[in-house]
Every structure is written in C-alpha cells, then in structure tokens.
Amino acid sequence: MATVLDSIPSSAAGKAERLVDKHGRAITDLRISVTDRCNYRCVYCRTGTDGAVYAELPIEDYLRIARVFVSLGIEKIRLTGGEPLLRRGLTDLVRELSRLRTLHGGLLDLALTTNGHLLEEMAQPLRDAGLSRITVSMDAVDAEKFVRITRVPGSYERVLRGIRAAKAAGLAPVKVNCVLLRGFNEDQIAAFAQFSREEGVIVRFIEFMPLEEDRLWTLASVVSMKEIVEGLESYRPIVRMAPNAASETAVRYTFDDDVGEIGIIAPVTQAFCGHCSRVRLTSDGKIRTCLFSQSDHDLYGAMQRGGSDEDMVRFIRRTVEQKEARHHIGEPGFLKPSRSMVHIGG
Ligand code: SAM
User: Fold this and answer.
1) Whose C-alpha lies nearest to ligand 1, atom 1?
2) pLDDT value at position 51?
3) Which residue minimizes the CA distance to atom 20 of ligand 1?
4) Could you tell me the residue ranges of all domains in the chain?
5) For FRET with 83, which of 123, 224, 282, 283 sits at 20 to 30 Å CA-CA?
6) What is the CATH topology of the domain spanning 4-344?
C-alpha cells in the first residue's frame, strides 16, 4: 500500500485555511465509515432481514481522502460503519492514519466506534497500530435484553470481553454508548451507572434519533435526557462535570463520591447543532454534512474522474460551506434523511 505521506497536498496542515461553514462553525471532526456491513441487527438501527446493497472503497482511497481532510485542519478522525471491525485492512488503515499525526504536531486524535463483537482479538493490534481511543456500543447490561436488541445470540459476553480487552490494551478511557429505547432498555439506567463505576468506563446515553431502517421512531419512543437524569439520581446523587471541549456533545456527570462517569447526548431534546464540528464520509465516498441531510456530496466520484488533491480540497470546501444550520427532528414536516444510520456511519 502506498503510504499516507507519499504525497501531501500543498495545503498541508497549518498552512491552509481551516474548514469553516457559512454559519461560522469550524469543522475539525471527520467520521469515516469503512464499511456499511454489520454483524448485528440492532432493532433500533436495522431491519431483521437483509436486502441491502453494500458499498466500500479500497483502503488506499479512504487514506487519500483522510490525508486531504487533515491538510484542511481536521483534528479528529473517528472510524465507524456499519461495523468497522469487519473491514479487512482496518489495522493497516489505522497504522497509516496514525502517521498523519506528524502533519499535525502529534495532535491528530484517532478514534473508533464498534459494537465490540470482534474486539477481544482486535483491541491490542489496533492499539499497536496507533489507535488513540475506542467507543463500544452496548445497549443493556442484562444479557437477555442485550440479545433481544442485537438479535445475535451470545453477543453480550463477547462485547463484555471486548471492553475488558480494550482497557487492558490501553485504549482508555473506554467509552460505552447506550441508545435507550422505550420498551426495550429504559430500565437499564441504574445498571449502567453501576457498570461505569465497577468497570471503570465512561457510559454515554444517547437519545434515539429517527435514523433507523424500520419505521419505529416516534417522540414517545425517545427516552429523554430529563428521564435519564432522573433515573441516575434515583440511583445515587449526581454531580455535573465541566465539558472537555466547546464542541463536546455530551453533558457529563459523575456521582457524589467521584466514582464513575456518565455522559448524556441529547440530540432530540437538547440539540447541539450550534456547535457541531463534524462532517461524515460514507463507506462509498460521499460527504454528508449532517446526519439528517437530504443529499450526499460525491467526493469519490470527483476523485475517480481524475480529480487532483487540489480539486478535492475545492470540492470539500464548497461542500462544507453548505452545512445545514441544524436538524429538524420532531418538527412538523420533518423528513427522514436519505440514508439510515448504518449506511451513513454513526
Ligand atoms: N457498528 C458500530 C457500533 O455499533 O458502534 C458503529 C456504527 S453504529 C451505526 C454507531 C452508533 O450509532 C452506535 O452507538 C449506535 O448505537 C448508534 N445508533 C444507531 N442508530 C441510532 C439511532 N437511530 N439513534 C441514535 N443512535 C443510533
């Protein structure tokens, strides 16, 4: 594989103007989906049957795109999917991406989101390849409820082993993301609080968004931030923590004895679009400027037509400029986005 530093666009990091959208938000965070295949069928994400068409780019092409983005001041890359650990060549990609840090004075943050099913075997190789941090999705700490959500037998034990392996490999602090869905796991709030304290992981509750393949979402199905706070307080008094960064999406809490950390990400009831710093690249090479965009921007198409790195820079700047001011979840006339979460990259 050609390495990432073989050719660096003339707009190398620090020299080029950074990416800013027309609302004045600096775009510093890129999520790259490396596959839209997934080995779980979580009820709030995918349908039970598989009629989907999947699309992936060669690893070298993700690398080239990432390199161009980093030259435009991207400070954080998160690899996602689909399920990124299914992707052949993932460790090589991480190794090459971690070399981009030299462009950034060592500051590039390289993270990955996974369902954890294959993590026990992959945590150490990913860490050795240069991954900084990992987030594992886990929607129940009760094995039966977990399987009811993932629809994969034995999944709970595997994910738990994956989380522990990630900690042992030094991918700390491990974050555990939980989407609460009424009727499935809204009774898991206290159990997750305890899990955070016992396992030494940061648990983050995420409000359910209308991004699923099936039509399940209603406002009533969302377990709101307010309910989550109440659930935590009935377990043990909580204490609000300061945000880590201005663009942080989670409201952070610990408990009265400083043990454990909980984040609440509330895109539905407390939207944070005003300080959104993200863009996404889908596994088939399209830029999405918002989870709820109605259209994609075909960067890969421009690349395949022979676009130079400078052409890609222009394409990216034009696209980012058009980033939506905010989403409209729950408002009259809200349209579901043109892709579901698994084909966007969460
Ligand atoms: N397969 C990986 C995983 O499970 O983390 C990465 C992709 S997954 C789409 C990324 C995250 O999106 C997961 O934490 C998942 O729970 C979350 N997610 C999926 N559908 C969602 C929805 N409709 N609302 C909120 N979060 C969702």
Assistant:
1) 83
2) 64
3) 45
4) 4-344
5) 224
6) TIM Barrel (3.20.20)
Length of the chain in terms of residues written: 346
Query: Pick from 341, 142, 178: which is nearest to 264 by CA?
Result: 178
Q: For tokens 């400029």, name the residue.
A: 321
Distance (Å) from CA 105 to ligand 1 centroid: 31
What is the rounded CA–CA span in Å between residue 310 and residue 308? 5
pLDDT in tens, 231-252: 999 999 999 999 998 888 999 9
Distance (Å) of CA 211 to CA 77, 102, 181, 208, 286 = 22, 36, 13, 8, 17
At 84 the pLDDT is 98
Residue 253 CB less than 6 A away from ligand 1: no
Q: Going by CA atoms, what residue is nearest to atom 15 of ligand 1? A: 137
